[in-house]
Amino acid sequence: MPLPQLFLDKMRELLREEYEAFAASYDEEKAQGLRVNPLKASVQEFVRIAPFALSGVPWASEGFYYGKEDRPGKHPYHEAGLIYIQEPSAMAVGALVNPLPGETVLDLCAAPGGKTTHLAGRMNGEGLLVANEPHPARAKILSQNVERMGVRNAVVTNEMPDRLAERFSVFFDRILVDAPCSGEGMFRKDPDACAEWSPDHVTMCASRQLDILESAARMLKPGGRLVYSTCTFSPEENEGTISRFAELHPEFALEDAQAYEGFDRGRADWTSDAAPGIGETLRLWPHRIRGDGHYAAVLRKMDGEEQPVRRKYPKSLTDRKALKDYFAFAEETLTDTPAGEFTLFGDQLYLLPSGMLTLDQLKVVRPGWHLGTLKKNRFEPSHALALSLKGEEVRNRLSLHADSPQTFAYLKGEALQAEGPKGWHLVEVDGYSLGWGKLAEGTLKNHFPKGLRWPG
Ligand SMILES: C[S@@+](CC[C@H](N)C(=O)[O-])C[C@H]1O[C@@H](n2cnc3c(N)ncnc32)[C@H](O)[C@@H]1O
């Protein structure tokens, strides 16, 4: 699709002598990236077993470029949640948020989950991660990715930012606003962004970004870190949005966003009344690095009110009778029973991450770690539970190799022949959990979810 002429004219004016190199980058092959999921495997472990031509992405320790011939998205390791396919520049953002285990973190515009799963990996299952996405269908995909990556401590909500801000005022240590934008950096892969582009659309995006940041500001604790990012070049949505926000919020200061070779800085001369520190923000250009276009700013909330309201925490489910079948399953199948604050959504049983507030009256896709379904007189474990378990946490497992025909048969939904005790078995690929099977009389009934099965 041809690029909008008004866009090209504007870029020519901004970039001057660099414009030709920039324009030529749209005809070059896109850099392909994947990120290793440390909840499943260490980077060293993955590099040892991966059948791909990998080379490191300099700005993210978990990130790699892969070869032209590689198809990591179609490998069993992808189903096992060992990897997330992510555009390399996008990995710079999660690295800037850099949450620590135990912190309270919000990803406000999170679908499909590239950055959320990056943050979850760095949190190592400790603390609370709220991943929000207002678009319902996209929120569902976000939740599926959170599950595939075996994340235990995430809640997925489907709300507008201002609704979340009412509940979570002054609550988070770190917030990421990976804002909806005009997507100029994605024109190569997203023809819709290209077709939708207009100067008015850029203006509308900038105004929406400011609204989203306004809600984020209300939810951040004093001392907390706010990271703002876009995948567009327009100064209105980058230096412009951040400068307007800084004008309205003197309690926020821009901090130095760590730059790597080839990264550029935000341009004070590309917006009116540039915020002090706009030169500490980052611009990633496709003609300067191996990756798409991005912008990122790191802000710190220097002061502000402390926790203003009485918090409402969820009522815990104490009905041991309702949980009886779950505990029986766990005792029989797992070496250690996951426990804590349980909650039921219909017949679906979840464990809430610790420190979570009540989710009453909010739209929630996933209130925590999905354990499974309470059926009549029995408990059926979820796929999410399988993917979050390590082999040693399960009594019975069926270990397969990535290139074994049995692995592909399992992924297609076929039953497998197997020996062992009757009951639930964790199916693993090279030691990484892939899903459940239920064994009886030498046949392992396939519980790999129907919607995820590979074509036969
Ligand atoms: C750039 S994408 C996020 C990509 C995501 N962070 C990732 O790494 O996979 C922006 C997201 O913001 C969502 N969005 C649209 N309007 C929004 C709003 N008013 N508030 C919050 N998010 C919004 C879009 O549906 C989209 O999923």
TrEMBL record:
UniProt-listed InterPro entries: Methyltr_RsmF_N, MeTrfase_RsmB-F_NOP2_cat, MeTrfase_RsmB-F_NOP2_dom, Nol1_Nop2_Fmu_2, RCMT, RsmB/NOL1/NOP2-like_CS, RsmF_methylt_CI, SAM-dependent_MTases_sf
Highest taxon above the source species: Bacteria
Family in the record: Belongs to the class I-like SAM-binding methyltransferase superfamily. RsmB/NOP family.
Protein name in the entry: RsmF rRNA methyltransferase first C-terminal domain-containing protein
UniProt-listed PANTHER family: 28S RRNA (CYTOSINE(4447)-C(5))-METHYLTRANSFERASE-RELATED (PTHR22807:SF30), NOP2 YEAST -RELATED NOL1/NOP2/FMU SUN DOMAIN-CONTAINING (PTHR22807)
Positions of the SAM-dependent MTase RsmB/NOP-type domain: 1-302
Active site: 231 (nucleophile)
Residues given in the record as S-adenosyl-L-methionine binding sites: 109-115, 133, 178
Cleaved signal peptide residues: none
An example Gene Ontology molecular-function term: methyltransferase activity
Keyword annotations of the record: Cytoplasm, Methyltransferase, RNA-binding, S-adenosyl-L-methionine, Transferase
KW Cytoplasm (keyword) present: yes
